[in-house]
Specification:
alpha+beta; six-stranded antiparallel beta sheet; 14 strands; 22% strand; dioxygenase
Length: 288
Amino acid sequence: MPTATALPSVLQYTQKISSAPSAHATKSLISHYSTSAAEHSPTNDGANHGSTYATLTTPPAIVATHFDLSKIPTAEHAQITRDFIIVPNYLSPQEHDMMVEAATKKLKRALGKQVRYEDGHFDGVITRYRECSASDWGGAPPAPASVQGAEQKERQTPGEVLQAIKSHYFPQDWKWVAPHILELEAGKGGIKPHVDHLEASGQVVAGLCLGSTAVMELIHDKEPSKSFRVLLPKGCFYFQRDSVRYQYKHGIPIEPEDHQFKGTVYPKEKRISVMLRNALEPAHHNGH
């Protein structure tokens, strides 16, 4: 089985990503991920309102390179790629390195410099990990209107990155749980398939993948013969919602030989994920 050396090119869908997006750049990117061009009329300023969120879907070119749906009935592919969105290269290299440095410092401040990786999570799901909350990363104020249409500098803080995600992809009236940082040890860290606690957050589980490429496996909770894998390159932004969030268990294979995508094994290097979850509210939790 081959070992990964390089990721597929998807630059045609990710040119957006080197700086905090202007309104024009945001509208251009979102249009690639929308199933309805009507949502992107000239009067749309690029802000993501609820109607745009509802139309998002992963573009076919990215599905081809980042999804393995071979164990999913063809009739269900569209629903899965609507409910699992991935934006490769969401972070520029500089933004990625800034996020890694900030997350590492946050873990050290929260846990201590000599803290060891934990062997098992309290619920038995995660192995060889470190984690902490990042409540002070809750967000940053939006860019002033006078500069939103101009080319902007790269996002300089975690708060700016997370605020951009919330502003550009999700309804503006949503409330959010404090961001969560999870680091997996190289070689040994992993996450067993699970569904995030239904009473702890709402219909969206989102993340930034930092440090190394990860392979996520998703297995249907009631029909385990139905499963799929997603390739998560470092610097990507992704989120699962609705049918995928509630009906599929998700995890990162623990054994190095199982950390593979379409026959290629990806080395299990140290990986950090910054997780965002919307708060559980009657209007947003999809009846769960």
